[in-house]
Model the fold of this input.
Amino acid sequence: MRHGKYRFLAGAMALPLLLYGVFVLWPYVQAFYLAFTDWNGLSSGAKFTGTENFTKLFSDPLFLAALRHNGLMLVAVPLGTIAIALFLSAATQRTKVYRVVYFFPQLLSVAIIAVLWQFIYTPNSGLLNGLLRGIGLGSWAKSWLAEPNFALIAVMVVMVWSAVGFYVVLFTAAMESIPGDIMEAALIDGASPARIFWRITVPLIWDSVQVAFVYLGIAALDGFALVQIMTVGPGGPDGSTEVMGLGLWRNAFTYGKFGYACAMGVTIFFLTLSIAALFLKATKRDQVELA
Done:
């Protein structure tokens, strides 16, 4: 009987595992191999070059600039998104209609969000500069995506804006699972709302916050679509919004350096795994159990 069950499970899992191996694992294996070659994407063969691609990669000033920009995004985007999402979740916990409003950006594709914010950032007729002029702050109006000092910040604002709604819903759901008598006991003991939030609410929903850090960290190592659509160049001005994904795309599909692009992809792969593991370890806390 038990052997029959195992045969059934093996037969049921065979096709999904085969498809996973062909369409997921095999492309990874190919990319790892091509990272050590000079393949141009068209030739039938590829010359093995050893670690030459990786040596060039870490002496490439554009890739190093992209690494710095993604590093900055890795700090700013998760912290900014989680801080805003926690605040909005606590402020609108009893008002469900606001959650729908905050979640709305999740219904839009990245391309639509990028084009929408391009219009918002337009220097002369954009909503942002128009608002600044309307409230008497016309001197603050800028060409947001055309100035090196502000272009990356402008992109990060869009990343936070587009992500925050999802985490508002996630954190609100976690907050609603906290028993009400815990909050009532804290209020009876004289705890302030701020103290309740930091000492009770956040520790009890920390698993959700930890997940948010990991997912947002992975997203911050990407940023390709927004940069590709929103910025001049793309990646400009003067490389101020260059990100690793954009460099990979450019080397593969513009310059035909698929081997070099695969080396970038392998580097991003291991970097993403390392960041995810680091975030999990850094945000690990003793689990708070409800009696």
About this structure: Residues 52-282 form a domain with the MetI-like fold fold (CATH 1.10.3720.10).
